[in-house]
C-alpha cells in the first residue's frame, strides 16, 4: 500500500510541476510584456535616441521617478571623430515629463576631460543638456534613432551624421 501511495504522490507532484511550468509559459507568451526603456522615454516625451541600442533592462519607480537603465557593459562612441559620448553599464536618475535630472552614468568628452551630463530637459522641439555650469541645446530630431556602441550614428549611413554635424555647426556659429 505504501508503494501505491508513493507512486500517486510522485505522479501528483509531477502533474503539479508540469502545471506550474505550463502556466508560467502561458503568462509569458500571452502578449503582456513590460514596456521597453525606449517606450518609457517616449511616455515621458523624450526621443528614444537618448539611450544607445542594447539596453537590456530597467527599473522605474513611477511614484518617485527614480530610474535605472542597464546596458550589457560600458558604451562609447564618437560623432565626427571628436565629440565623444560614454555610457556606464548602469545609468540612473529621475524622470518626469520632459526632464531627466540627477543623471549619473552619461558623460561627454570636452577637450581632454570627461564631463558628466547631469540633466536633460525638453523645451518644445529642443533638448537642453546640462553639465552643471554650462549646457547646450540640440533639436530633438537629432535623437530620433538610437546610437550604436562603437560607431554612434555613423554606422554606414552618412545622412544622419551630416545632419548632426550641420546642426552642431549652426549652434556653434550662432553662439559666436
Task: Describe the protein.
The structure is a single chain. The chain has 2 domains: 1-33; 37-175, at5g01610, DUF538 DOMAIN (Roll). The protein is of the alpha+beta class and 176 residues long. A hairpin with a 3-residue loop joins strand 3 (75-79) and strand 4. The protein has helices at residues 2-28, 37-43, 158-175, and strands at 55-60, 66-71, 75-79, 83-96, 99-110, 113-116, 119-123, 126-130, 135-139. It has 3 helices and 9 strands, in the order H-H-E-E-E-E-E-E-E-E-E-H. The model is unreliable at 3-29 and 159-176 (pLDDT under 50). Strands 1, 2, 3, 4, 5, 6, 7, 8 and 9 form a 9-stranded antiparallel β-sheet that branches.
Q: How many structural domains in the coordinates?
A: 2
Total E-strand runs:
9
Q: Kindly provide the name of the CATH class of the largest domain.
A: Mainly Beta
**Helical proportion, percent range:** 25-40%
Gross morphology: globular
Largest sheet: 9 strands, antiparallel
Question: What distance separates the N and C termini?
Answer: 94 Å
Which architecture of the largest domain does the CATH hierarchy give at level 2?
A: Roll
Oligomer: single chain
Amino acid at each position: 500500500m505504501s508503494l501505491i501511495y508513493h507512486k500517486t504522490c510522485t505522479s501528483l507532484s509531477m502533474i503539479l510541476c508540469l502545471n506550474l511550468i505550463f502556466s508560467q509559459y502561458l503568462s509569458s507568451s500571452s502578449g503582456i510584456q513590460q514596456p521597453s526603456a525606449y517606450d518609457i522615454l517616449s511616455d515621458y516625451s523624450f526621443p528614444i535616441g537618448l539611450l544607445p541600442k542594447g539596453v537590456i533592462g530597467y527599473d522605474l519607480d513611477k511614484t518617485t521617478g527614480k530610474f535605472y537603465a542597464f546596458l550589457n557593459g560600458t558604451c562609447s562612441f564618437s560623432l565626427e571623430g571628436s565629440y565623444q559620448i560614454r555610457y556606464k553599464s548602469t545609468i540612473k536618475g529621475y524622470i518626469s515629463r520632459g526632464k531627466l535630472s540627477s543623471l549619473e552614468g552619461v558623460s561627454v568628452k570636452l577637450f581632454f576631460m570627461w564631463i558628466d551630463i547631469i540633466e536633460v530637459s525638453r523645451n518644445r522641439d529642443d533638448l537642453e543638456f546640462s553639465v552643471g555650469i554650462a549646457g547646450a541645446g540640440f533639436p530633438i530630431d537629432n535623437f530620433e534613432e538610437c546610437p550604436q556602441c562603437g560607431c554612434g550614428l555613423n554606422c554606414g549611413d552618412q545622412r544622419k551624421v551630416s545632419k548632426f554635424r550641420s546642426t552642431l555647426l549652426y549652434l556653434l556659429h550662432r553662439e559666436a
